[in-house]
Amino acid sequence: MLKKGTTLYSYFDKEINDSLILGKVIKRPSASIKSPYMADVKLLTNTNTNNCNENENDNENDILAHTPSLGCNGYVDKGQNILVMPKFGNNTKSSHSVEYAYDKEILVGTNPNISNLIVYNLLVNNLLDSFKNYDNKNVYREKTKGNSRFDIYIKDNEDIEHFIEIKTAPVKDYDNNCAIFPKGYRKKKTDTFSPRAIKHLEELTVLAKEENTKCYLVFSVPRTDIDYFTPCKEDPIYCNAFSKASIGGVKMLCFSSTLCEDKKTIVFDRFLPIKFNIKKKK
């Protein structure tokens, strides 16, 4: 049984007395490496996010950080306070990765790869009640079927195949106090935010119709200040594909998580309802 406060992910081994480090984004893309996945960050010695006015002309604590979710809808852009994880090993251009950002005073997870690890670990440890009757040795990461590669695959004890796609939804709709997906950059308002996400929805919808096959879409919300999840109404193309997937038998699941005060581990918060009809923004 998954309970509030259950550890979902640990950044450090128990033997390591360390935690994520407070920093501030100076520039993204970095001045030295123009990739949008790289940012110049200043490590901050003051742990109070309300008083982080370090001298930006002092380069002593400047580092290069990997930003797995790019700007994460503005949470990881210039001037934003963030939490970074030191990288271990020499085969990397950046010394740290951006794991969390502050949306006002709320911590928001900014590494979508963590969501995949969390769901995989939950399934391996038989902690999700929606999935039963399987051997944890038959839980696999990344399975190609059709034209898509899905995040997790399970073949249960009755030879039923389970295809699971995981999406991270860090962005909050403040008008409705809910998490939304997808959200980000697009060239035109008529474009979708994520053609890849729509492709996965369409592939899951097709697979869900096959015999001895079950398909799932799991949304991981790395923040706790929201009431529910809904597909982003600014992207009607995705909303249409989402509705078709739901009607077509794709099962939906959503949960939230947060970082512990010690800034070392991520813990389970709660399961969130998924809603389709919300108030339109004025």
- The low-pLDDT segments are none
Order of helices and strands: EEEEEEEHEEEEEHEEHEE
Determine Rg (CA atoms, Å).
20 Å
How many helices in DSSP terms?
Answer: 3
Give the DSSP E fraction (strand runs of 2 or more residues): 35-45%
Overall pLDDT score? 91
For this structure, what is the CATH class of the largest domain? Alpha Beta
How many structural domains does the protein architecture include?
A: 2
Largest sheet: 7 strands, mixed
Query: CATH fold name of the largest domain, please?
Result: Trna Endonuclease, Chain: A, domain 1
Strand order of the largest sheet: 1-16-15-13-10-9-8
Q: Overall 3D geometry?
A: globular
- Tell me how many strands there are: 16
Oligomeric state, counting identical vs distinct chains: single chain
Q: Which structural class should the secondary elements be placed in?
A: mainly beta
Q: Residue share in helices? A: 10-25%
- At CATH level 2, the architecture of the largest domain is 3-Layer(aba) Sandwich
Distance between the termini: 41 Å
Note down, in words, how this protein is organized:
13% of the residues lie in helices and 35% in strands. It has 282 residues and is mainly beta. The chain has 2 domains: 99 residues, OB fold (Dihydrolipoamide Acetyltransferase, E2P); 160 residues, Trna Endonuclease, Chain: A, domain 1, CATH 3.40.1350.60. Strands 1-16-15-13-10-9-8 form a 7-stranded mixed β-sheet. A 5-stranded mixed beta barrel has the order 2-3-4-6-5. Strand 6 and strand 7 form a beta hairpin. The protein starts with 6 loop residues before the first strand and ends in an 11-residue tail after the last strand. The relative contact order is 0.15. The model has no long low-confidence stretch (mean pLDDT 91).
